[in-house]
Amino acid sequence: MSNKVYPDAASALDGELFDGMTIMSGGFGLCGNPENSIAAIAQLPVKGLTVISNNCGADNFGLWTLLHNGQIAKMISSYVGENKLFEQLYLSGKLQLELNPQGTLAERIRAGGAGIPAFFTRTGVGTVVAEGKPVQQFDGELYVMERGLRADLAIVKAWKGDTSGNLVFRKTARNFNSVMVTAAKLTVVEVEQLVQPGEIDPDAVHTPGIYVDRIFQGSAYEKRIERMTTRPRQAAAQAGGKSA
Amino acid sequence: MSNKVYPDAASALDGELFDGMTIMSGGFGLCGNPENSIAAIAQLPVKGLTVISNNCGADNFGLWTLLHNGQIAKMISSYVGENKLFEQLYLSGKLQLELNPQGTLAERIRAGGAGIPAFFTRTGVGTVVAEGKPVQQFDGELYVMERGLRADLAIVKAWKGDTSGNLVFRKTARNFNSVMVTAAKLTVVEVEQLVQPGEIDPDAVHTPGIYVDRIFQGSAYEKRIERMTTRPRQAAAQAGGKSA
Amino acid sequence: MSWTRDQMAQRAAQELHDGYYVNLGIGIPTLVANFIPPGVDVTLQSENGMLGMGPFPYEGEADPDLINAGKQTITELPTSSFFSSADSFAMIRGGHIDLTILGAMEVAENGDLANWTIPGKMLKGMGGAMDLAANVKRLIVLMEHTSKDGESKILQRCKLPLTGTACVDLIISDLGVFECDKKGGSGLKLIELAPGVTVDEVKAKTKAAMTVALQGSPGK
Amino acid sequence: MSWTRDQMAQRAAQELHDGYYVNLGIGIPTLVANFIPPGVDVTLQSENGMLGMGPFPYEGEADPDLINAGKQTITELPTSSFFSSADSFAMIRGGHIDLTILGAMEVAENGDLANWTIPGKMLKGMGGAMDLAANVKRLIVLMEHTSKDGESKILQRCKLPLTGTACVDLIISDLGVFECDKKGGSGLKLIELAPGVTVDEVKAKTKAAMTVALQGSPGK
Prior knowledge:
heterotetramer; A: alpha/beta; Glutaconate Coenzyme A-transferase; 8-stranded mixed β-sheet; 3-stranded antiparallel β-sheet; globular; C: alpha/beta
């Protein structure tokens, strides 16, 4: 009987990291981050990493710690604002950056996991994003060709997972996690609740177990909120019910 | 307040059909077929249809009825076996057929709904499927370019849907339904249970309401089984627990 | 006089129609949600993977797993659904969103938009803006007419790196409302003035070709 | 003597390894599920949108919403999951399936496979066979060695329209087991004989270049 379950991030990642490797890291901002796996990588001597992640953490949190350690050589992201360290390293030439439109980044990863080496999109035509890439006309409109993306390792955070690797994500913490889990040679998933097979409705599974190589129940989740935005209780009766 | 809810198939399709149009029809074999919508189309004088569906029904059932009525001019499918009428019409030149590998068909529809006019796949390289299509090398391997597919109308069957169009499918009846619902100018969905917003967990929604233009609660589902295959109860204790 | 930020958002909200699926950018566009007209049912998409965004949570009820694309805590509604980033942008790229309202640094009379970078000065990234610009059915820019230095943000051609080409349908600034000619050639059309603003003032503050075709009464 | 269909399926089941994700084609390959060795945990994929296929249902418990790719009624397991056809073939195309076992009309010594059409005679369609042939990590063909007319189904080159090129790793027929040289050039390698079958008999019934490299004891 094959076993995917590991006790923690350190054991799940043991022996699988190497200098210069490419790592996909799930999350949008600090939402749905694989906090345990990032912390474990920060403890290891691995460096020269190419990290594919929509953002690069925030001051003192998430992937920022790997940046701070000097472990990251290159980021492939869509948005790296609100991160002074990133800007510093980039402007001083110590960090490479490949910016992708967010939807193109998501689709490139989806393509990488789905056996599609390239696809066409309208996004970025006529901008710097399309420079050096084939541009082709379909039905009278111009599209740019984008390539599928894969990684050596994906670190992913789900809400619930069973021991066979079936995953369920929670609210907007799904984001890039359920895409990246399909596109790496090795997939290490951390969950808040590790459950037995049968505890997840087969119709409600977001990620089938086939995509999960290793799974562990994470601990001490901080889940930091970047922009706490609330409304006062007395506003309940106002028309602002649509505001977001 | 916009309203997507219709009383039945006839009203949901009223005025939307025209000769020569392209219709996507969900289902795999007779599983997850939009039975009510097909029956309603069979009652209307529309003809010259191009139908995109993995199969074309089975004797006396499903899309077979439209074929029998002479309403279909062309099928885009992956498998049309077990359908004598289809073979007859095709061999006598009364029906056009474009066969696609099943995964290519599914991905073409997904691409059509996702704004991707073309993508590359290994599937079909070196076969008749690749004839006349661009073949390109990526990382040393050959891939064929396939185009996205869209339709004028998609008829789709879900298990449960709320009045805002959020859908949940049941078991293997999901198949092409949740793909086709994204790729047509007009989407008409029939459900077994029409419920109020709030009755479907937002994390368990398979198809967000944005893809659904019209929805109705279907009736009199036959759900015919093509190949009833069972095991006798006394076999319960045998090793055949893995058989499928 | 010109419009305040709230008045600009209120004017933009008049472009919402019943049944619309809408993506609002960060900044002034976010305010539009406060002015959705009564009886108009609008569903807000957030490109990090949510349809049917609710209001901000009550104090003490924020959920770190529930944020919008601006990383603000939000809430869900009975009609909400969640999905992955790939599915979210399949929705956007596939043309399923009816309207997006975005901020801008520069807009050109041909509908070109620049709103993501200032070379050598600002390093952030385009996020989802290029996807929205290239693929949403209708794009409205909501922005101050001039920069902090008083320079026109509406130009004959953008100088900054583009977010998208020929993608802006309508510009709502603090001075008025302008249609873009995405097919090119005929320039901007001024269709509405903020109260107290004159055509001459707009012309003086706009570095683009413009025709005047004011519709009905001036803006409220 | 040669192998019966069940014996062929049993031999094929020896190619399953613990933890494998496997897609079984219709016909003889379906029988392989009956012979999964004890202690070997194999998850069956069905390309119509299911991972973790269970056994056939008990009489009276069939569910029309729960079928396999051969349209047979099946059941689910505690580890099962359901997904769309697009997601199912993303899984297949992405190379996530470890092994597929398919039937065939013809296989060539270079690993080419033909199993979907006989021009002018049989109109069915390729279904998911081309996707499986082009993208699964390892492909085993499980078929009778000769046609009903006694013609070899193993050929130097396929005559029928192909399902996939250079895709077959191993052939298990009623006569024995053969490795294909997908890189081309060296032909088939006979590695195992069914009991009572001789190398000469195999050679007489096979229209392809073949080397003999029998491994260990003959097949049980």
